[in-house]
Ava_C0101 and related proteins (Marinactinospora thermotolerans DSM 45154), 314 residues
Amino acid sequence: MEPFPPLPLQDWEDTKQTVHRFLQIVGKIRLSSGIRRNHWWHVPFHLTGRGITTRPMGAIDGNPVFTIDFDFVGHRLVAGTEEGRQASFALPGHSVASFYREVVSVLDSLGVHVRIAVPRPFDLPDSGRPFEEDTEHAAYDPAAVNRYWRVLGRVNLLLEEFASRFSGKTSPVHHFWHTFDIAVTRFSERRVDQPPQADPVTREAYSREVVSFGFWFGDQSVPEPAFYSYTSPEPVGLERQPLQPATAEWIESRGAHLALLRYADARQTPDPRRTVLDFYESAYQAGVALTGWDRTALSCPGGITDPVLRHLPR
């Protein structure tokens, strides 16, 4: 398989809509059963060798310690407890409604009893419809899902490489179930006073200055996969800062500006990996040049902070 294989959104749109809602169901279980971390770091998924995982959760809510994994090689949902008990079911053939019921049943069989506070999609067109009533979304193309996971894995490593260059506070590389993207975020220590009308998610996510970097698989606003970056709060003039490569651009998004490099454009370059890393670096430099971060102090070439070790042979 190519390092960045073709991934047109229209080729798997129906499957993506179904899988997105599968992820939201399990993600909301993670939200209710995980230990809270700053900036909602306890909420997203992390990658495994076969798919994505919630990581261990439970204990704080009266449940045994348990995990839920999506296996996108064998196409199964796998739940397990710390005692070694395990239960699973096949992903193909399920609507969102039947998936929801099966997840609850599997967890009950393991002695795990969860309650999703809002058992409906988050920030999707059918956000008013309960999961257990959604028989519309039922497409599952195993080949397309496996390709999504392979692309996710490659982007995960690329973001890990980019994250290694920064010695300040940085998030894990994680896969968000609400927006269906994968991202890593760099933070400054400057506090941000959010307006009174800001929702709780926004208030916690952006309580500090950030520059964030990620990749999404396409949505209604940009109907194709793309790499992105943004600075929040956005400094004046950000959209006039240069980006690399020449095909990258600033676009308006929800009242702010997003640096965007389309996946198809990155694929056409001689070295897509280098192209994407240069894009992220240019977006970072654009943001911190205007916000005044100490770029030299926060630099971490090759993942090494000690200046002596940087010059020793590896």
Q: What stands out?
A: Helices lie at 13-33, 96-109, 142-163, 200-205, 263-267, 272-291, 295-298, 307-310. The first strand starts at residue 46 and ends at 47. The first helix runs from residue 13 to 33. DSSP finds eight helices and eleven strands in the chain.
